[in-house]
Amino acid sequence: MKSLLSSFVVLLMLGVSTCWADTTRVPLRPAFDGEQRAWLQAHPVLRVGLVLQAPWVQRGRDRQLTGANVELMERLLEGMDVSPDWRLYPTLEALDKAAQAGEVDLAPGLQQTPAGLRIWHYSMPYLRVPHLVVGERSGSGAVDIDQLPLEQLVAVRAPSQAAEYLGRTHTNLRLHLVPSERAALQQVLSQEASYAVLDEASLSLLLRESRFSILSIVGDIGLPQLLRLATRRDQPTLSAIVDQTLKALPARELEELREAWMPLRYPQSSDFVGFWKTLTLFLGLLLLIGATALYRQRQQTRQLERELLAARGEFDRHRQAAESLRLSQFSIDNSTVGILWVNWDSHLRYANRAAERMLGYGVGELVDKPLGLLEPGLDMDRWLRLWKRVREQDAGSPSFEIDCLRADGSRMPADVSLSFLRYRQAEYLVVFLSDVTERRRARAALEESEARFKGIAGNVPGLVFRLERAGPGQAVNFAYISEASQEMVGWPAHELQREDRGIRSLVHPQDLASYLNSQTLALESESDWDWQGRIQTHQGLVRWADIRSTARSLGNGRVVWDGILWDITENKLAELALADSRARLRELSAHLESVREEEKARIAREVHDELGQVLTVLKLETAMCELACAGQIPALDERLASMKRLIAQLFQLVRDVATALRPPILDAGIASAIEWQVRRFEERTQIPCLVEVPEHLPRLPDAQAIGLFRILQEALTNVMRHAGAHSVEVRLWQEQSTLCLAVADDGKGFDPSQRRAGQSFGLVGMQERMLMLGGELRIDSLPGEGTTLYARVVLDGEENA
After folding, report:
1. What CATH number corresponds to the domain at position 473?
2. The pLDDT of residue 602
3. pTM for this one?
4. Which structural domain, as residue segments, surrounds residue 108?
């Protein structure tokens, strides 16, 4: 009791002295020389660059700067007898740029880097800030980060020095990169990660929050941050002054600075300093004194309880061992694998029930039998060589297949594995037997099936192949290519199955891009692969090929594509010739249509000009006759009046014929022509029409203007003949470099899929006209819901401009 009281008095005095030391500081007295003192007198104000980051630099409620770096610099500048000019920067990069521009003189809390050495002169480290491993408080104590299993994630902020260090030196870790230290701790709280790595400064701030109270420090990654004072490289005198001032700063003050701004403790209501710490310690000592007596009284009882529990545990272990031994013997006796223990003289010392059943012997009949009874070809010399081979430590356990001789004289195919065993003072060779009768039958069936498949594949008029991918993101290879490749492309199958060859080595260079695109799409989507293009044979001949393959998933990300490469050269050449013929026919049709329109325009001009002039002269001659003979002969007056009416009708007929051949309104633009045609249709059919055309359109070539106008005429004719519509809407608009025409009616509609060949030549003519113009025609219709016709034509670049 006296020793405890004396200890308490000593601790109380230490606590009071600590509290007193916290309130008093010894003035710094660096040993400056004359040059240094003169430099400080010439620079009474030093520009201090700070990066605004807690707990190093932060603003208090009164907007004053606080923090570990601010307090350290105030103490050092006090020793230098100069005043600070605080310069705040958002990032370290901004601070480095300011130093290069000569805007700051020194900066605290920096780490020495190769890039920084070109800007700063660094002092000796004054503070070491480690990177700590944080886990749940209920964890199993300290953690060796090199021994963490792969299934445990470690959260770390990236980009950061810790993330680069862990990724480079600890390849056993599964890192989970997060944007901030807070996010790393939240990953541990939500159990999405097992541990988090962050520096001591950030951890001291975050541990003040109550939600992180269940976390604790479980390790250190061995990567400390060595903080230094940095001065500009062009100020060597200031660097020497800073080094002298740091040497004069007591180490105790640096530790107090760490405890004040980076305390690694959790928020508690009793977390105070000074006297209250001592008072708490005193109360704890009193509780310890009271508990000591109770502990001494119960010490002997607990010792007896522990001995009793140890004895009971030992008994339980013996019982479990005996039960485990019986279970092991039962498992061995009833195993599906035969087990034989063979002595060095090749005699059997043990055989389990599975081996006895396989070989047709009763219980215990195989013991002391020679192994040659089961394998007659195993003489003593061969046995001793096998024994020596298995006994060597470097040799692996050999495995092979034999035909064992059973008790009834029959043969049993068996898979044999050998293992060397030392038991007490004896040595044995353990023989494991597995009946492979069914496996041998399956292998024979498989070989027969493979031979049948190769025979079928070899006679298929095409190249049969299988493309395999072992897993997602892995390379693909041709697991099988039929022997027909020699006859089809001139290359043997084994040559095309090389990793650097494959079917892609046969593809024509101009078609290689489409081949790779189709194959990549099939691989990424795990879908069927179809491709058609040109290939080159070994003799340099160009052939057309068609690939058709079906994808099958085999589980665990493994996918195979089974397919055939057909030679379609003859069909493809015929198809190309047919396409070329169709293109030539379309060009001929376009030329004929152009000639027809030009002929219509010429006839319209001649009808309008020639007949118009003749009719005008005839009308003048009739008028002159009427003036000369007016009132003289009544019958002649009637004839002249009838002639004038006929001439007027003929005038109208000429205008109608010229307009039908080529409307003059087309010269005013496609928009005016469309509006004029719709209005004529409305007057002729009495069907209300809504017309919407833009005010300003680019000038269209005659072919495009006439084509759109003829399509409009045909569409309105179909509305009049078949639609039974009550209204029609016509819209013309421009979408970038495309001119669009839409004709919609509210008639009875029809099903476009039910059209029969030869039933609607008007629609076919419109489609062919749009193809000649390089445009697109689409018809949307449903029975009872009307019909909408869309025509799109691409404007020429110059006209569009």
Report:
1. 3.30.450.20
2. 62
3. 0.35
4. 31-127+228-261
Say which residue, 731 or 603, is predicted with more confidence.
731
Do 685 and 774 reside in the same domain of the chain? Answer: yes
Is residue 622, in this structure, part of any structural domain at all?
A: yes
Does the pLDDT of residue 783 top 60, yes or no? Answer: yes
Residue 607 corresponds to which tokens in the numbers above?
């009808």
Query: Which residues are paired to 401 by β-bridges?
Result: 415
CATH code for position 699: 3.30.565.10
Give the closest residue to 68 by CA, choosing from 198, 350, 260, 227. Answer: 260
Cite the DSSP H helix spans in 399-535. Answer: 437-459, 484-489, 493-496, 512-525
- pLDDT confidence band for 1 (50 / 70 / 90): very low
Question: The domain that contains 247 carries what CATH number?
Answer: 3.40.190.10
pLDDT tens string 314-340:
888 888 877 777 777 777 777 778 888
Structure tokens given for 147: 């021994």
Question: What pLDDT, in 10s, does the model give residues 669-695?
Answer: 777 778 888 888 888 888 888 888 887
Per-residue model confidence (pLDDT) at position 23 = 42
Is 282 inside any structural domain?
no
Distant-in-sequence, close-in-space partners of 481: CB < 8 Å, separation ≥ 6: 463, 464, 465, 493, 496, 497
Residues 469, 538 within the same domain? yes
d(CA 757, CA 2): 120
Higher pLDDT, 456 or 96: 96
Q: Is the pLDDT of residue 594 over 70?
A: no
- The encoded tokens of residue 789 equal 């016709």
Among 32, 133, 111, 117, which residue's Cα sits nearest to residue 79? 32
Q: Which of 716, 703, 704 lies closest to 762 in space, CA to CA? A: 716
Q: Model confidence at 7, in pLDDT bands (50, 70, 90)?
A: very low
Select from 71, 46, 48, 45 the least CA-distant residue to 127.
71
Residues 500 and 370 in one domain: no
- Residue 400 CA: distances (Å) to CA of 61, 350, 366, 439, 538: 82, 21, 22, 14, 44
DSSP for 11-23, please give it: HHHHHHHHHHHHH
**Cα separation, 560 vs 479, whole angstroms:** 9
Are 116 and 141 in the same domain?
no
244 and 104 share one domain = yes
Measured between its terminal Cα atoms, the distance across the chain in Å is 106
Full 3-state SS string of 318-338:
HHHHHHHHHHHHHHHHCCCCE
Q: Cα(639)–Cα(62) distance, rounded to whole angstroms? A: 116
Percentage of residues in the chain having pLDDT higher than 90 = 0
Same domain, 147 and 195: yes
Per-residue pLDDT at 520: 86
Q: Would you say residue 387 lies in a domain?
A: yes
CA distances from 25 to 75, 257, 645, 721 (A): 10, 13, 128, 109
Using N-to-C axis directions, what is the helix angle for 251-261 and 68-80, rounded to 10°? 150
| Among the listed residues 467, 461, 460, the one whose alpha carbon sits nearest the alpha carbon of residue 529 | 467
Q: Does residue 421 share a domain with residue 355?
A: yes
Question: How far, in Å, CA of 508 to CA of 510, rounded?
Answer: 6
Please name which of 355, 452, 359 lies closest in space to residue 404, comparing C-alpha atoms: 359
Residues 6+ apart with CB under 8 A from 191: none
What pLDDT score does 275 carry? 56
Same domain as 653, residue 577: yes
704: nearest Cα among 740, 680, 657: 740
Asked whether residue 697 is assigned to any structural domain, the reply reads: yes
For residue 423, give both structure tokens.
């038991």
Range ranked top by mean pLDDT from 72-86, 602-616, 624-638? 72-86
What three-state secondary structure class fits 477? strand
pLDDT band at 259 (very low <50, low <70, confident <90, very high): confident
Number of structural domains (the chain) is 6
* Domain end position, chosen among 164, 197, 223: 223
